[in-house]
Amino acid sequence: MNGRKNKRTIYLEDKPRQQAQQELLEQCSIERNVEYIASQKAVGRVTAFPIYASLSMPHYHASAMDGIAVRADQTKSAHEQQPLLLKKGDDFVFVDTGDPIPDGFNAVIMIEHVNEVDTDTMQIIEPATPWQHIRPVGEDVTYGEMLFPQDHELRSIDLGALLAAGIIEIPVLKRPTVSIIPTGNELVYPTLDVSPGDIIEFNGTVFASQVEEWGGCAKLQDIAVDDWEAISESLMKASRESDVVIINAGSSAGSKDYTAQVINELGTVYTHGVATRPGKPVVIGEIDSTPIIGVPGYPVSAYLAMEWFVRPLLCQYYGKKEPKRNTVRVKLGRRIVSTMGAEDFVRMNIGYVNGQFIANPLTRAAGVTMSLVRADGLLVIPPEQLGYEQGEEVDVELLRPLPEIESTFMFSGSHDLMIDILRSCLRKEHQRDLSISHTGSMSGILAIKNEEAHISGVHLLDPATGIYNETYVKQMLPDQDVVLLPFLKREQGLIVNAGNPLGVETIHDLTNASVQYINRQRGAGTRILLDHLLKYEKIDVEEVNGYEREMFTHLSVAAEVRSDQHNVGLGIRAAADAMGLDFIPVAEENYDLLMTRAFYESESGQELINTIESESFRQQVNQFDGYRLSEDREPRFYRS
Ligand SMILES: Nc1nc2c(c(=O)[nH]1)N[C@H]1C(S)=C(S)[C@@H](COP(=O)(O)OP(=O)(O)OC[C@H]3O[C@@H](n4cnc5c(N)ncnc54)[C@H](O)[C@@H]3O)O[C@H]1N2
Ligand code: MOO
């Protein structure tokens, strides 16, 4: 056995996902088990058998109104010109809504249609029809009637019907036990105390929540180390104790990826590798009729694989169709390429700009959890499709409700921490979200030009004039009616490690051999500022170590600086502060907001302006060093 233990399994299949799913459902199923629970606690549970009423509702003839109970045939002569007098006890009885109708009476007249002559005498001017305003026995539910078929998922209103119909306890399907085994020597339980190489175990919690949402009872097991015996022991134990077992990671081609081999040794492997990107290294098998699903390690792949192979098992158990997401037709802002022969799942950012849904792909890296957190939709590209062109229209599965997407402002432009603050203020003041793409100032201007964003944030210095933004806006948007709204003044400077261990003082120090510079991406205002400063100081970019190393945000530059004593970056003071780093100011710059005039003047545009002008936003901006709101906030209009 030893020889096999360290062998790599590199030949993964590319089985179509639907085939793998169909085979799984044909080969495996969860045995149906029934339990009786209190009806009061049954919301979300699924009936195991048809449920029949034990009582009628109402179970007596009940008055439907406040008024008087009468005998209908005694009231026939009542007329406006010939009012009829009724005597209490003989001719009528007072009843309130819900009261039983006394024997011998068969109609109710509403109190407002009755004239009181004295306490014992009432006058009516219209006859009553038999059974008017009476809820007969069983009006709602009749004894013996089927309330719910089997496999019905109980909702809140259903519990009312159950209790009224005398069902105190109800047979429901037991929630299948789903064990989750995280594997990997590098995994640690959630903590702040991490060393390089440690990976916080969080997939298990995501899976457990998914399982609970789908009606399973999740059992998150201890982390299993990458060791044949440990994994096989954990798998055997879990397969005896549960209805389904999920084993996470160790499914790919790494030297310690044993999952498939262990399942094969203990039972049968049906599938190893599906034709999806991400999510390929899935393992599907069984041990003693317990389905075992080996889910890839990367969080995005893992989340999707759970939906593809664990949810169907639970749906099958509950006799339920798999839920389908709603879709929306969007125009693609960028070209998207896809692998031939494999289904691609692309997380998308969707915006509603100028009456049209426009979508752009988020990162494709399956290790980036936030790409799924931030995604508004999922573009599923079929295996035979090589991708789509920019501007093409496609259907995207929705991960957020459409009205929420419709009301979200799209921001694309330079990264700034105050944009996050603006987002949270917009949420609070106008229940509106702001979707933020850190694309840099130049791309931000292009996004306004291409109607892909409502708002852009720009800080672009024109070296010739020393003026910010205006030159670029005029040049890049010559025929558009746009507004540049002065927004922030902020300090830019060199971000160095705490205590400035390299003794950096000026931009010239970037040429020191001990300095490793962390740059920003092309088109970013900070990059343009650096280039300008270098040129002004007559420093060649070749002399700056690390010039080609690009990061996309101030915070990621700061995080890089913190990771190594030799690293230095250029960025805003707030980013240095946020990471406990030192800051050497080099410039104060204008960070302005750009939008179309139509948006600026629209009702929703005014919500943005109100938020910027709000006391709460100003207070929050003032809490950050190195920032102030521009004193002059008069909008500048540009038109062709
Ligand atoms: N040479 C190849 N390398 C890789 C391939 C391949 O085909 N050839 N496939 C890549 C793909 S695609 C994926 S997905 C991953 C899957 O690898 P494993 O399932 O073997 O998982 P690990 O390598 O153990 O972990 C990968 C990665 O996933 C994260 N992770 C794992 N467990 C957890 C957890 N419980 N909580 C949170 N995060 C977890 C973590 O970032 C791991 O580093 O392999 C590629 N490599
Ligand atoms: O297949 Mo992996 O699951 O692409 O990320």
UniProtKB/TrEMBL annotation:
Pfam families documented for this protein: MoCF_biosynth, MoeA_C, MoeA_N, PBP_like
Catalytic activity: adenylyl-molybdopterin + molybdate = Mo-molybdopterin + AMP + H(+)
SMART domains: MoCF_biosynth
Signal peptide: none
GO biological process annotation, one example: Mo-molybdopterin cofactor biosynthetic process
Pathway annotation from the record: Cofactor biosynthesis; molybdopterin biosynthesis
Top-level taxonomic group: Bacteria
Keyword list, A-Z: Magnesium, Metal-binding, Molybdenum, Molybdenum cofactor biosynthesis, Transferase
MoaB/Mog domain span: 179-316
One Gene Ontology CC term in the entry: cytosol
Record field: transmembrane: none
EC id: 2.10.1.1
Cofactor dependence: Mg(2+)
Stored InterPro entries: MoaB/Mog-like_dom_sf, MoaB/Mog_dom, MoCF_biosynth_CS, MoeA-like, MoeA_C_domain_IV, MoeA_C_domain_IV_sf, MoeA_linker/N, MoeA_linker/N_sf
One MF term in the entry's GO annotations: metal ion binding
Family annotation (NCBIfam families): molyb_syn (TIGR00177), PRK14498.1 (NF011068)
Entry's family note: Belongs to the MoeA family.
Purpose of the protein: Catalyzes the insertion of molybdate into adenylated molybdopterin with the concomitant release of AMP.
Protein name, as recorded: Molybdopterin molybdenumtransferase
Species of provenance: Texcoconibacillus texcoconensis
